[in-house]
Amino acid sequence: MSDQLDRNLALELVRVTEAAALACARWMGRNAKEKADAAAVGAMRMLLDQTEIDGTVIIGEGEKDHAPMLYNGERVGIGVKNPTARSQAVDIAVDPIDGTRLLALGLPNALSVIAIADKGSMFSPGHIVYMDKLAVGPEARGLIDINAPVEDNLKAIAKAKQKEVQDLTAVILDRPRNQKYVDAVRACGARLKLVTDGDVAAGLSTSLQGTNIDVLFGIGGSPEGVITAAALKCMGGDMQCKLWPRDDSERAFAKEVGYDINKVLLINDLVNSENVFFSATGITDGELLRGVHYVTGGAMTDSLGMRSRSGTMRRIQATHRLEKLNQFSEIDYGR
């Protein structure tokens, strides 16, 4: 495919996450997770079908949310209905709302995210919902080891960043299953930030300047792990994961499909492509992105668009005239 088409695709993905964020933002604080998610999924699906791709959803809504759209294995894009179109064959990973509970309660850091890479390059965790994760930014790339003690990883990161261990900040999803990581970070004297939700946002924060986050530890969603890996490839970060089956049925599934639950999955195992695109749009205000803000006659969005091949990351702030959008779009953006 032409380089020009690739560049266009990078910007088209921002339109996709903008649409999802705008569609669900009015549900902020209304404690209606399913309605908010349905709005975001519907908008993202519609915009993807208008994009010059022949895409297969590898990481979608189906495994956890049983959604009727953007389910694992679904094909989307112009190239699906029109095989003669100049459409790029790609794998797709989506999370229309990373932090559905955050949006439902009006809390910070809910995002709409999508990642696209060459066809056949994305890891599919299938029915295994969780992964044990370790993620860092570019300075510590190649220096982490998920099988090593937390202390060893913190020392390696501190050395790479020319800091002391007590100057580092780790982010961990606040769940009982991650208590061992919480205890270990505290025992080493490093700073700690616990987050209640927002797996992707937490992973991104390790590689974005100004977040003051140095490392992500802990067990979180497998789909979110693949999406995070795609973003980190664009930003030059690093990640290691191990599948974390919850029960015997998930262990049986891993054995059935040939997954070794003791194997360390490197970032290239998660996304084995050097042509990766990632986009995120803020839904609620957060440390990474501003959420959707409503102004007279419209709304404002704040997005990140990235491409691994060029290493370019763009921050795009857009103003949307909702009356104009509603004239030609089937998505209900409100007024």
Task: Spell out the key features of this protein.
single chain, 335 residues, alpha+beta, 8-stranded mixed beta sheet, 6-stranded mixed beta sheet, 12 helices, 14 strands, 34% helix
Write a structural description.
- The protein is an alpha+beta fold and 335 residues long.
- It is built from 12 helices and 14 strands.
- The chain has helices at residues 3-24, 33-48, 62-65, 78-81, 100-105, 150-160, 179-188, 199-205, 222-235, 248-257, 267-270, 322-328, and strands at residues 53-59, 75-76, 88-98, 111-118, 130-136, 169-173, 191-195, 215-221, 238-243, 265-266, 277-282, 293-295, 298-307, 312-321.
- The strands form 2 sheets. Strands 1, 2, 3, 4, 11, 12, 13 and 14 form an 8-stranded mixed β-sheet that branches.
- A hairpin with a 4-residue loop joins strand 13 and strand 14.
- Helix 1 runs antiparallel to helix 2 (33-48) and helix 8 runs parallel beside helix 9 (222-235).
- The longest helix has 22 residues, at 3-24.
